[in-house]
What does this fold into?
Amino acid sequence: MRSEPRLAHFAVLAALALTVLPLFLQLPPWVPLLFALQLGGRAWLAWQGRQLPHRVWLLLAMIVPVLLLWLSLRTLVGREGGVALLLLLTGFKAFETVTLRDWRVLLGLGFFLAATPLLFDQSLPSALWLLLSLFVLTWAMVLLAGGDSAASPRAAAQALLYAMPLMLLLFVAMPRLPGPLWSMPTTDQRATSGLSDSMAPGSIGQMIPSQEPAFTAQFRGRQPAREQLYWRVMVFDRFDGARWTAGSVPDSAAALASGAAGELSYSITATPFKGALPVLEHAVWAGEGVQQGTAQLVRRIDARNEARLRYDMRSVAQAAYPATLSAEQRAHYLQLPAANLRTRQQGEFFARQFRDETGRLAALSAWLQQQGLRYTLSPPLLQGDVVDDFLFSSRQGFCEHFASAFATLARAAGLPARIVVGFQGGEFNAGGQFWLVRSSDAHAWTEVWLQGRWQRVDPTALVAPSRIVSEVGELVPEAQAVLPVLGRRPPQWWHTVHAQWQRAGFVWQQWVVDYDARRQQSLFQRLGLGRVGVGSVMTILLLGGVLLVLPLLLWLLWRRPPVRSYPVRGWQLLVSRLQEAGVAAQASDTPAQLRDKATVLAAVQQQQLTRLLADWQQWRYAEGATDSDPRWRGWWWQVRRFRPPRLAAKKRTGR
Amino acid sequence: MSRWRKAASSWLLRRLPRQPQLVLGQSRIYLLPTSFGWGLLLVAWAVWIGALNYAVSLAYVLSFWIVSLVLIAVVLAYRQLAGLAIRCGAADDVVAGSHALFPLQLQWPEGESRLLRLGWHDEAGGVLLDRPGEVLLPRLTLQRGQMTIPPLRVYSESPLGLVRAFAYLRLQAQVCVYPQPCADERAAASLPDGGQSREPQPVPGELFSHLVAWQPELGARRIAWKAYARRGVLLARRFEEPQAARSTCLLEWSAYPAQMTAEARLSRLCWQLLAAARRGEDVVLRLPQQELRLTAGEVRPGLRALAGFGVRDAQ
It folds into this structure.
């Protein structure tokens, strides 16, 4: 039976509401809430069969929310502003939908709205949500077209399924643009959990309890050891007594030569941290889209683009790289503010004591280890001379305290030193063969210039070696992964499920979200099609069309012959079996005629035939007999097994 | 309908042969996106622009899925009409100025759900059909004669409403349209030799004669329910009036003033013929080059003769 139009109208409103549900997470909550209320109001009017408000009232009512939107976002364009405005306008549009055409316009807007949550989030869950939205929108479309209400979900699912191969083909083949058409101001209100452009006490510590993924890395060939994974992001070389910042001193590093033994080849998918991208210490080669800058740091070529990027790198996992320092640079790396007197005296003591720089560094490290420092994520708050307080009174801290103290100490001892901030370690996903680095892996360490090389010294490793070898969570309870609600350590199966989910997310990220112009190019090359151009796109579309879409079309357009029931099929089979055996049987014969004709067969076969015919007659003409009787199936199988042997030619005279 | 569309559809109709029945296939089915289909393509384009600008892969998915949906809708709409078998049954004769009812039989394979509309090519809308069967399409008759069934249009926007599949059909079926009876108060001439009744007298009120439009004063007992079920029009059954004796009535073409038009004559003759039938008289109908002798109750050949007078077989 056909659906009544009101059901279709409710379906359209429900589809719209469902589609924009994820926007609750992205927009000021009152905007989607107002939208939901508008849809609810429209549904109520439809339910009660009431008149819609006059257009003048609608226009007047629109002013207030739009004004409110302007006040809260300060914009009506761009990502947030545009989406919120579109939402409000669609809500008001719902109040002037009367005819079928109006409802279809509203539904079309719904399809457009389905794209808006994707501007904010493209993870696997939002893809599943998109699928759900598409299904509900298509379902509403079927109902609007007058489809049968009971069969409409099936019809919608079928239409979407049939459309899928073509969609996939277009997704792979349609050329992508390497950059945006026009740039829009993005007012991202969410605090980015990541590295900041300076290091003050606590700035890294606040990241450590967060389990949020920071970036992923995939190594080709050999996997590195966990303790080799020092991901370099930023370098800080200016110290004001409390805060380390990046100075602008050019580094005259001799580039490391590529092709060395033990070189690791990998690709990283990361969002830039203040323009800087993570790279394994120390890079020897940078792939397309990124460049190596001073102090072995890697940046995007289009440095102002803050979008996620996948880039290839090659590194040699080693603790030092060669660099020459001019006298001016040397002075810069020895600069210290007047504060932290005790630390400076300690450093100067070492400078006097050990003339040899290597020995001096070893002595500094040994001294730090003997201070009884404790690794904790909740150290007491330090004020004033933070380095002195840390080294000589509180003695509790984590990587940034250690790094800051050691760099100060080294500079005071006459060794050029600086701080490197980045990540250390990561979680290896064995199923997906990739490393997931989280916020909790954020780390800071020190670099000391010694004998023409910047030498990595990780004071945290000196004091708490287990921090480097194992996960931070095993050392510090605050950074342990906990179950969301229960708040205790998760069981083993949870880890397995979690790893699988991460793997799915990684594959998703690699193949869907990051499928951009560059990746498309590399796929085309791997397929042997060369550059993305008119010719290669046409080749893919034609080839894919023939392989994927054409069979579907043929299947859809093929007119299936009517399904014959078991008794009909069985009867025809029986007649043809008898004919094969040499009996002059015909499909139009009655059972009695068949039996008469089959007297030429052997007695056993005649018996079988008699039984088959008796069943056929009984079931075919019984009271309330139907062709869908389950017994017919068994009967058909018996006929299939009935194979009378071929009669000798002389007996085949028949009648 | 715009001028261009009109021109296109008349061109389509001109090249269609008339067939008594037909099965729709790819040569007869036309497919065009509806305005909703175009609108959705526009939405897909907008989403694509957004995806291009913001480099949102999933928005590409959405955009391409919408485009694919519109393309697949072409095939799905085609399937709504493909394999549809149509023929027109025999239509009952009507009086000019009333609606002729064409019984159209539509068949399609069992188990396929279809939703289509059948109507005249020059009228919007049509009858909605969701299962095989017969529909009666009414068409106003304007003039007496043989009316050929006008071209039909069958269309479907199911299942998505994005693409319209339509086909024009020119079937072979005709309906006989009687002249509209016009009251003629002159007494009809009687034949001198008429009136031998050899046949047995019918029992009064038993012999069914014909159907007329039902009026409330006739009473519910006279309603022809079968005819109502078939046509949806209330008709009353007329019975032979009891007659004591039967006379023969002479209806002549030439009995009217010379300046009277053929149609006016036919209308009056029609009225006279019906009146004579009501009275239960035998009739002799004299038309130029044609003379019919009709026994009482045998009114149909007379009406047909009037309907077909001077009409060449159309097409």
